[in-house]
């Protein structure tokens, strides 16, 4: 999938017509990404983010035979309102919870970067660790949080999205993190990225057959969603999934902004894709 557009395609059209054709030509390819990728690296801020935002997609990809890896940036140790819960204990509880959720969805491997919850920063160190992971796993797709979501207050989410897009972009350059090459790794170009919790989705995935599985995986995160208060996540998430479903005429859907790597640098129309 490359840029399959030339100036003849828009000759004789006015601006609005030409722009619409440019965008729809790009979207045609992007909408097929989830059908063709085989290796997916999910880079999440905390141990439950992918399951909540994209558990249906993950289950669907896993059942199609995709190899899926979760890389969790922070230890999740701050995710409690209970002053009697020790952060260290919570971090280890959250590892077990994510292991159980991953098994339900069909994720085979979990990687923990263990930055402290609430204090993740977009540093070169964190970016380079992701670059090494990308070169080791050689994904076709990154799945992560949209760092450009307006009104997002959680700095771990913004930092994770930024680190992921930067790592994706720089992993193909051999002189960035060059000691990877001494360790036998090769530069890697990840062709696609899918962003969740995005204001501008361009791809909707029918998760109707996977919604129960998704909620089973989410319910494994008992420290975040205790059974007696599970409705607090279940209700709004079901409403939102129904709403997204209406976009493609199904009961439940998840929404993503899917981009190719060339949309992440000097591309003035990425926002509109
Ligand atoms: Zn989070």
Can you walk me through this structure?
The chain is of the alpha/beta class and 273 residues long. It has a single domain (37-272), classed as 3-Layer(aba) Sandwich (Rossmann fold), CATH 3.40.50.10320. Helices cover 42% and strands 16% of the residues. Helix 4 runs antiparallel to helix 8 (211-219). The model has no long low-confidence stretch (mean pLDDT 95). It binds zinc ion (ZN). The site of zinc ion has 4 residues, from loops.
List the helices and strands and how they pair.
Layout: H1 15-30, H2 33-36, E1 39-44, H3 49-63, E2 67-74, H4 87-105, E3 109-115, H5 124-137, E4 141-145, H6 155-170, H7 179-182, E5 192-196, E6 203-206, H8 211-219, H9 231-248, E7 253-260
Parallel strand pairs: 1-2, 1-4, 2-3, 4-5
Antiparallel strand pairs: 5-7, 6-7
Bound molecules: zinc ion.
Q: By CATH's scheme, which homologous superfamily applies?
A: LmbE-like
The portion of residues assigned to helices is 40-55%
Alpha-carbon Rg, integer: 19 Å
Low-confidence stretches: none
Task: Give the cofactors and ligands.
Answer: zinc ion
Query: What's the total number of strands?
Result: 7
What structural class do you assign from the helix and strand content?
Answer: alpha/beta
Give the CATH architecture.
3-Layer(aba) Sandwich
Reading off the top of the CATH hierarchy, the class is best stated as Alpha Beta
Globally, the shape reads: globular
Provide the CATH topology.
Rossmann fold
Compute the average pLDDT: 95
Distance between the termini: 16 Å
Strand order of the largest sheet: 3-2-1-4-5-7-6
Number of helices: 9
The description of the largest β-sheet is: 7 strands, mixed
Strand content: 15-25%
Order of helices and strands: HHEHEHEHEHHEEHHE
What is the domain total for the residues? 1
């Amino acid at each position: 999938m490359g840029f399959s557009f030339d100036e003849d395609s828009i000759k004789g059209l006015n601006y609005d017509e030409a722009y619409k054709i440019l965008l729809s030509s790009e979207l045609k390819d992007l909408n097929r990404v989830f059908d063709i990728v085989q290796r997916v690296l999910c880079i999440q801020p905390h141990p439950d983010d992918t399951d909540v935002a994209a558990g249906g997609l993950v289950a669907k990809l896993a059942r199609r035979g995709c190899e899926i890896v979760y890389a969790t940036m922070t230890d999740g140790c701050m995710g409690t309102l209970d002053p009697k819960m020790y952060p260290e204990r919570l971090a280890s509880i959250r590892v077990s919870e994510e292991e159980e959720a991953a098994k339900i969805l069909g994720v085979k491997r979990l990687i923990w970067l263990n930055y402290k919850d609430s204090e993740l920063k977009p540093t070169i160190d964190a970016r380079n660790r992701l670059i090494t992971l990308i070169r080791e796993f050689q994904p076709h797709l990154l799945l992560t949080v949209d760092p450009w979501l307006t009104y997002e207050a959680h700095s771990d989410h913004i930092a994770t999205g930024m680190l992921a897009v930067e790592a994706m972009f720089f992993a193909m350059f051999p002189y960035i993190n060059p000691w990877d090459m001494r360790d036998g790794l090769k530069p890697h170009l990840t062709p696609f990225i899918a962003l969740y919790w995005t204001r501008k989705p361009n791809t909707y995935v029918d998760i109707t057959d996977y919604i129960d599985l998704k909620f089973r995986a989410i319910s494994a995160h008992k420290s975040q969603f205790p059974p007696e208060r599970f409705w607090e996540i279940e209700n709004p998430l079901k409403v939102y999934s129904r709403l997204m479903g209406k976009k493609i005429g199904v009961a439940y859907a998840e929404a993503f902004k899917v981009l190719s790597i060339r949309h992440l640098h000097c591309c003035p129309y990425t926002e509109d894709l």
